[in-house]
Amino acid sequence: MMRYKVIYFVFFLLAIVSCTGNKKYDNLMQRADSIMDVDDDSAKIAIRMLDGIKPQLPDLTKRQRMRYDLLYHKAMNKAYIPFTSDSVMLEVADYYDHHGSANDRMLAYYVLGCVYRDMHEAPTALEYYHKATEQADTTSKDCDYATLARVYGQMATLFDKQYLPYQELAAYEKGSKYALQAGDTLNAIKFYQNRMGTFAILGKIDSAIMINLTAAKMFRHIGRNYESALAFGCNYSFYLQQGDTKSATDAFKTYVSTNYEGNLEYDDSKAYVFNERGLYYMYMNQLDSAFYYLKQSLSLCKSYNNKAATTKALAQYYSKVNRSNLAIQFALKSLTYQDSAFIDTRNSQLQQIQAMYDYGRHQELAIMAEKKASQRTHIIYLLVISGIVILVILTYIYRRNILLKKKRIETTKLLYEDSLLRLTKIQEELVQLKKEKDSLSAKAIQEKEEAYFKLKENVKDICKKFDNPQLTEVDVLLKNSFIYKKFHYLEMHPKEKIGLEDWKELEKTVENLIPSFIPLLKERLNEKEYHICLLVKLEFSTSFIANLVGITSSGVSASRKAMLAKLCNRVGSPKEFDEYVRKIQ
């Protein structure tokens, strides 16, 4: 037996050491997560930190491996490293669907959505973005509003690519709202300003201008002067559309001062910016500058849409400088590029329709699977309810039998107490007859002794009917005494106080029924120790004893061990002392 204890102890120590060793990886992952949340550029640093853990992955727990994969994919997303496979994140999302917090589940579904975004599966990406928003517990104080805002930002981008302007506007509004709740004022303003492009597509130029002006004020208010100038400067093309030359000139000068060359995440961004500048200069009849920027734009263009717009602008330029041959040539090129752009758009829409069909089929299969799962759930519920009903019936039968048993015990107890009283009375009469010692009493003594022994046997038979096989006449008398019932009442009402007279009455009752308590205990213990012994004899709880004698529960246990050593000259547990005291009759 001792050998097994040693083995268990060794395993326990190894588990502790293992947990301590793995804890450093938890701390390292936490640091990497904190670093990548500072800004997007720090995500590459976080990736290098996580790469340092990769050799130890087989030694980590499943929880730690799932956390590692989630954080690694999160860092890749922040570092703009495209995803090419969904296998790892599907496993991670499935794990966090059953483990972790609401924030963990939201992040897992968000990153999985980003995986499908990079794999050009927009409907599936949107599905997981929606799932991510459903996981967010916005009633909780620790809700990760920053991630929730990013989810809506990504949804808005996908809606833009799918030509769904109203869904895009709604997503940006929610993204701005949750970014504010996360304390991220900068991104809240950016999400707000991003709606400008959607209003422009819808032909609501005044709304687009107002959004840029409002965003410029908000950026300036938080000290982001560059973003403020850019927001204000972006309005120059809108002012040109309205024929407001003065406002367009002011906005354009501010725009040029920022040296903005477009969003570098998009290949054609710089070409688009140069085309817009060329159009501005052509509108202002600064034709040399217009030609320079339009030629630069054409050399950078990659998409047919931008090529069509730039060649169209160049056709207008050549028309202005009276070079009709080139004007016709570039106008024809523009038409050709427009046809190609139309074909690309049509192919893109066909792919989207196919993706939506696949998504619809996937949803149909998911619904069928859900129905089957629902049926299984109903069967499980039925089995559980049936089990509960059976349990209730069995509990009722059991409780009914217990009540019947209690009634039998009460009846037996009354008979037992009556027999004890008769036994005591016969014992007193027998003592009186023995004192008289006359010829008449000899026969009476014999009769009384026979009645006494017969009644005593009857009492023993009744004792056997009680639950406690150790029950004696003394135990019954003690637990039916007035002072026991008073102490029991005090146990149920801890705020009530006990008096000195109560202690004396308890001592008197126990000593009258068990005289051996005096030489065995009272004469060898102090008052507090003796009181503990009395209460132990009556089987009161340790906490109640501690409350009555004014010490802690651990103090009562220590006192019982000390009294065992003092009275029995042996070392033992408080329980052994209790057994010793309760055997005293």
List the helices and strands and how they pair.
Layout: H1 2-36, H2 43-51, H3 62-78, H4 87-96, H5 102-118, H6 122-135, H7 145-161, H8 165-181, H9 185-201, H10 205-221, H11 225-233, H12 236-242, H13 245-257, H14 269-283, H15 287-300, H16 304-320, H17 324-436, H18 439-463, H19 473-479, H20 482-492, H21 500-513, H22 517-522, H23 527-537, H24 542-549, H25 553-568, H26 574-582
Helix pairs in contact: 1-2, 1-3, 2-3, 3-4, 3-5, 4-5, 5-6, 5-7, 6-7, 7-8, 8-9, 9-10, 10-11, 11-13, 12-13, 14-15, 14-16, 15-16, 16-17, 17-18, 24-25, 25-26
Keywords: Coiled coil, Membrane, TPR repeat, Transmembrane, Transmembrane helix
Transmembrane segments: 379-398
InterPro entries: TPR-like_helical_dom_sf (IPR011990), TPR_rpt (IPR019734)
